[in-house]
Design goal:
The protein has one domain: Phosphoenolpyruvate-binding domains (TIM Barrel). 44% of the residues lie in helices and 13% in strands. Strand 5, helix 7 and strand 6 form a beta-alpha-beta unit. The N and C termini lie far apart (67 Å). With 275 residues, it is an alpha/beta fold. The chain has an eight-stranded parallel β-sheet with strand order 7-6-5-4-3-2-1-8, with helices on both faces.
Length: 275
Amino acid sequence: MAELTDLPAPPTAGPAPLERALAFKRKLKAGGVAMGAWLTVPDPSVAEIFGQAGFDYLLIDGEHAPWDLRSLQTALMALNGTPTVPIVRVPWNDQVRIKQVLDLGAEGILAPMVRTVAECEALVQACRYPPHGQRGFGPWRASQYFRRIEDYMAKIDEAVFIMPQIEDVSTVELLDDFLAVPGIDAICVGPNDLSGTAKLLRQHDHPVVKSALDRVFAASKAKGLPVCLGITTPVVRQAALVEAGIRLLLVTSDLDLLVKGTAGALADAKAALPA
């Protein structure tokens, strides 16, 4: 893609790139707690509603929900001017898709089923430019269409939020080396898939699964890496989760609000009618 090297940045070129991502990372490094939500409905108005609500971050689920690059682009546009950092869960730990998502303007990557130290290192490489990584150059929308290319390039390797998702019970045996990979900013766990790899699908309270999760939480906390549980959690559990090191809370999702909200509204309407 051609770089618009001769195009001057007009006064209205927009805010400096990546400032909210850098602020987000500073908050977590200082021990803060971030409030987030899952975004699964590929519609910009949904993204805008969540962004305007003031969440610290959104996880846009490109693994299981029907996001394509065009719908992702419109959602990222809808988050312009909000404090909310868009973190995209890509379908797989794939260098090509990671590059495309970052070029569109995502400020963080969540990669599913990162199982080994080598796969974790590959994730970091895919998110960073040479000489620190292997990301191909072409951040067209991310750099405000090359208007702010120098600002973007000066900050992106520091600003991009990199979060591998531990979803295989075998990874627990590699934790010390896995968590020591330079460049990762947090750890996400996937309790459902992790339990599945132990042949205990969705049995989160089984001793084998619980022990594995507790080991991830404790090791990450000892390393100073915040953890995301990967699933939404009730408010009554959140204080205990933060104490365990889970400082990237997922308080709701668009799907959860739609399902519970519609069911509740219908039940309330029926209950209000005379018997």
